[in-house]
Amino acid sequence: MSLGDRELYRLFDRSPVGMFRCDEPGQFLYVNPALVRMLGYASAEELLGKNIARDVYADPEDRVRLFALYRHKGGVDGARVRWRTKQGRERIVLLYSQVVEEPEGAYLDTSVLDVTDVEQANIELRKQRETLETTAAMLDLVVRQMQAVYWVVDRDLRICRSGGAVHDVFGIQPGKFLGMTLEQVHRAEPGSQDPVSMHRRALIGETVTYANEWRNKHLVTTVCPHRSNGVIVGAIGTCVDMTTQYMLERRMVDAQRAESLGVLAGGLAHDFNNLLVAILGNADLALREIGSRGQGRGPLENIQYAGLRAAELIEQLLAYAGHRGVASTRVSPSPLIDELIRIIAPTMPRNVELRVEIASDLVLRGDASQIRQVLLNLMNNARDALGSRGGTIAVTGRLLRHDGAAHPDDVISVPAGTFVELEVADDGPGMSNETRRRIFEPFFTTKSTGHGLGLAAVAGIVRAHGGGMRLATAPGDGARFQVQWPSTFTPGELTAVSPPPNGHTVLIIDDEDLVRDVVARMIEDLGYAAITATDGPAGLAIIDSLPIDAVLVDLTMPRMGGVEVVNALRARRPDLPIVLCSGLDRDVRAIRADAYLPKPFRLEALEGTLARLLAPRPPSA
């Protein structure tokens, strides 16, 4: 070995990088101390006695494939292989090798980098990154579910990041405002608060929570400092869409106020009625005593007329308070509307067009005189809204299945069930939110004349009937009053239901309103007609008067249980398919039903049961 070779080997021995030379079979010819330490051997002599393919490679086949690559390319840079230490632990190493051809054979000179710890650190970093990304995605999902939005701004109040339910809440893409400052965003679309000043307070260390209205949403916003290593580098903002809760609270407050006013109105009406009895009674007695030509008769007649007008106002107050009796009779709104049109026709301006679309066979239940008062008030209100400008008043009616869900436009909400909805709509100037809120209060009016009891009485009458009302209006968009009147399917009202596509009609007998409603909708979705009855006697009356093709009977009902109903149905129509439904008693073998559906049942189970019991029937020509 020359002096240069000795110096070169001395350099290799001091290198922190593992180095070795081996022959083609794998016998070590030279190893440096760094490689000895890397593989866990006591000395270079111990390692030189080993074969790299047999004693170092975790998989000897890796060395065979790698040597073929060496032969082909003359060397490799960064070949990743698994080695095994003397103690049996696996290490991941990178090999940088070149083939040296000598007369006595080929050798491999190789530098080795142990990257096990680096790779393990990378794996941990990847896991941490995946965990952070999963957590961020989960947090974003939670924020979306809460109908919330978040954003991050820097010290210049420039938006760096945003997420959450941005599109659902505001109808915009999450990245629309990225890179813009808060001043730029809110200069074009200002809200009810100044968010810029709120964020500046966060930049000096405050956490600020405030209510704000932006893009027609009621928001609760919190802004806090964004710190990095203890230094405030920006602000983080979150806002939750509280519009639905706000509307519910407003409706609750309005309902409580209406209830309070109703109690007050009822009490006042009661006391005033007592006073009016005395006033009118004494006026009548005085008129009788002085005769037809007596002195002072004129003033007494004026007192009598004023008392009668006051009595009419008291009647409207009682209607608002819901203290008037409600008769429950079958009312057909079509002829009732025709009658009202004849009454108001002389007062209707020529430039107002009146359109009516109500089926002649549509029927509801209630007090005809009070229903007439409601419709007259709504039609007069629409006429007054149009005024001299003219326009269109549309009166329509339809059968409605209500799912019971509250709507932001509700004045009076209704539970799930079947209703007849009568709508009076105009294309007039509409109302502001404040006017809409107060329009049903007693004595509130936007007219130059009037006492403000018309719509208050309307609300009281609808409430007393157990009905509902919805008002959709906005400035420039007219007003639509939709009143839902209670209705039940009876034999005479079947014509209001569209004929079934497959020609079959199914009767549902159940005492639960929600059950009847949802099962009826399921049956109609399957292509059948559905009729409902609240109990056994009502169902039997329908069977006696209508062609029913199948019956669903609840097992447990008041007045007449399911077993009694089934027996009565068998006595009337032995071949009628009967499906027994129950959520309690599963032992139904003794009941003469054709099928059994345990509650709760799915649409697929209902579909299969009806398909098995009812053969398809083409509609009659």
What does the largest sheet look like?
Answer: 6 strands, mixed
Arithmetic mean pLDDT: 79
Strand fraction: 25-35%
Give the end-to-end Cα distance, rounded to a whole number of Å: 114 Å
Number of E-type strands: 23
Morphology: elongated
The number of helical elements comes to 19
Task: Please state the structural category.
Answer: alpha+beta
Helix content: 40-55%
How big is the Rg? 43 Å
| pLDDT < 50 runs, ≥5 residues | 489-499
Strand order within the widest sheet? Answer: 12-14-16-18-17-15
3D architecture notes:
- With 621 residues, this protein is of the alpha+beta class.
- It contains 19 helices and 23 strands.
- The strands form 5 sheets. A 6-stranded mixed sheet has the order 12-14-16-18-17-15. The chain has a 5-stranded antiparallel sheet with strand order 2-1-5-4-3, sandwiched between helices. A 5-stranded antiparallel sheet has the order 7-6-10-9-8.
- α13 (368-386) runs antiparallel to α15 (454-464) and α17 (536-545) packs parallel to α18 (562-572).
